[in-house]
Amino acid sequence: MSVMTLPSTTLYPARKGERPITAQDIWSIPRVGTPVPSPDGTLLAVTVTTYDLEKNAGKGRIWLAPTSGKGGEPRALTSPEFSSSEPAFSPDGKRLAFTRKAEGGKPQLFLMPLDGGEAQKLTDLPLGAFDPSWLPDGSGIVFGAALIRGHLTAEATKTELERREKDPVKAQVTEDRFYRFWDTWLTTGEVPHLFLYDVASAKLRDLMPESTAWFDWMDPSGQYDLSPDGKELAYGGILFDEAKSLIRTAIFTVPVAGGAPVNLTPDHPADDARPRYTPDGKAIVYGMQHDPFFYADRVRLMRYDRARREHTPLLDQWDLTPMQWAFAEDGTLVFEAEEDGRTSAFALAAGERTPRRVVQGGSIAGLTPAHGGRIVFTLQNIAQPPEVHAAPMAGGTVERLTRFTDAALDKVALGEVREIRYEGSKGESVQMFLVLPPGYEAGKQYPLVQIVHGGPHAISGDTFHFRWSGQAFAAPGYIAALVNFQGSTSWGQDFAKRIQGAWAERPFEDVMKATDLLVASGMVDEKKMATAGGSYGGYMMSWIEGHTDRFRCIVNHAGVYDLMVQYASDVTQGRAQSMGGDAWDGLEAIDRWNPSRFAKGFSTPMLVIHGEKDYRVPVSHGLECYGVLKAKGVPARLVYFPDENHWVLKPANSILWYREVHAWLNRWLGA
After folding, report:
1. How far is Cα 441 from Cα 562, in angstroms, rounded to an integer?
2. Residue 20, SS3 per DSSP
3. Where is this region: Disordered (predicted)?
4. End-to-end CA distance of the chain
């Protein structure tokens, strides 16, 4: 057999250990959260979550760590008895506000002195508290709390919840287009409000008592900012535009002293989000999208002049999307952005028009400026879980500050990670990561598992993915390939958007060309190949099922099977653009890329996995796909989670997920 040389770059070498990684190992790894620096920049607070597999639950604990690797070891600040998170230092650095949740309860606001003493509970709200921030003078703490529409006080919300608990009727009734999200019915009426807790009087005051706007449902924290003088709040509020039948986020301001919110961007076409005041308080910087039907439309940074009430572009010609932006003391704007399958740190100094890359390699998250011209963040890659790091904002050496995950991986063997670029569909350059099995031997052929990411406008990034771990897929003795097909993010707007209206065409060809390349290299046994994917990746699994028989088996998690069923999804805005048409005007175009229309070609054994609470890709997709396979006589297995959404998040369920996936692969590929 002729063997083609495969040009590749080794990113991370193999790591020796006593055994390959398992699902139990993955759940033993502490999950390190966003670092929060102290005002003087000498310390940081970070939430570290660990999981108890017997209790099938996790708890967060806040640790204090020095911002220099020479400053000593981190120390636990909060009790292991409760789950604590969202630390916020007081302006003088002497106290820490945070949220704490007792078992079975809602998170409430707490306050702890850092020189010793017990934490004091500040709130007892019916739906809990989140995202505390201090007023600049230290006199109060602003935080979020949910209330129920029509019952917009804590007392009225509590009464309404008690009434609902006793009511035998649990029906949801609506005429709204947008009535549920992810795993939650929006018809129950919960909306976030921002409250002020006055430290001296211990009194609470609702800062937006009449508001019915939502915050980001996936992560409501980080959606507001305080002006430097503490007199105003800016926040991103989600509204439904009845006239246009669109959901969009707008930027609002509200006086801290009291008053009605003001919408600063009422006429903008799509989402405006994450307002941040400049250090001098003269302006608000926010992110703006132009296309309400393309969720991956790149974000442009805008500047709102508060005195002139004018919106002007700050960074609108850049082809990447800024994320998690924040101002440093000197007015430099620091932010994250996906690029080339990674997430890097960038800085934009006052007056500059081109961002400067500060940290590159692996994937950063939780980027936060610290005193003294430094930034702190978590950094991870395919071979290393997240840990806290720091770097000079001007650029320079990245310093690792924590080692919370070392003990969990001490005896675990990990595979070498490589990167390959190749010619994909229509001659375009495509990138993929390759994870080799522990103990890989050059010249030997291995089974292949092609892992297709979801989205489709997302990435198989250089991250230690806990739910879809490339290392866990490679552990039994497989080569795991993670193709960033056309349609993926981090390569600019055109690369992401070019698959609109033809979801399967280029991505399918990209995955097939990657498979051809690996077979031609001699690394892969062509008779032992499988493919796995979730969400859009699951859509691609069903498409592959109907268009090739080259794989021995398929794993389809929460996959789109019938494009028409996506009208039952939580978000139907933009479906016509992504699918090629509307049900009443473009059915032929939809069917051209609808996997369910190609069942005639189904022959490959498939493992189908789905969660009942999945409102993004409703469970009927999985049940229909499984039913067609069984009726046609194709070997199939169904794993149904009654208590999971689009993702499998509970430890015991996740361990079962990995066990079923590995058993299915072993059944058809061997190990």
Report:
1. 42
2. strand
3. 64-91
4. 23
Does residue 457 contact residue 50 with C-beta atoms inside 8 Å? no
Mean pLDDT of 23-33: 98
Rounded Cα distance between 85 and 49, Å, is 9
519: CB partners within 8 A, 6+ apart: 448, 526
Contact 331, 324 (CB under 8 A): no
As a whole number of Å, the CA-based R_g of the chain is 25
Contact 279, 287 (CB under 8 A): no
* pTM, to two decimals: 0.96
Helix (H) or strand (E) holding 159: helix 154-166
Residue 407 CB: number of other CB atoms within 10 A? 11
Q: What are 96-107's pLDDT values in tens digits?
A: 999 999 888 999
Domain positions in the chain: 412-669
Q: What is residue 98's three-state secondary structure?
A: strand
Which pair of structure tokens corresponds to residue 417? 């990670």
Across 65-69, 113-117, 152-156, the highest mean pLDDT is recorded for 152-156
Q: How far apart (Å, rounded) are the C-alpha atoms in residues 206 and 255?
A: 11
131: left (phi over 0), alpha (psi -120 to 50) or beta: left
Sort residue 116 into left (φ over 0), alpha (ψ -120 to 50) or beta: left
- Residues of the chain with pLDDT > 90: what percent? 96
Residue owning tokens 């804590």: 154
Beta strand segments in 594-635, E? 606-611
Q: Check residue 601 and report its DSSP letter.
A: G
Distances in Å between the Cα of 423 and the Cα atoms of 452, 498, 506, 515 are 17, 16, 12, 12
Q: Which of 334, 342, 338, 341 is nearest to 321 (CA)?
A: 338
538-592 pLDDT per residue, tens: 999 999 999 999 999 999 999 999 999 999 999 999 999 999 999 999 999 999 9
Q: Which CATH number fits domain 412-669: 3.40.50.2000, 3.40.50.1820, 3.10.450.350, 1.10.620.20?
A: 3.40.50.1820
Q: How confident is the model at residue 4, as a pLDDT?
A: 60
Percent of the chain with pLDDT over 70: 99
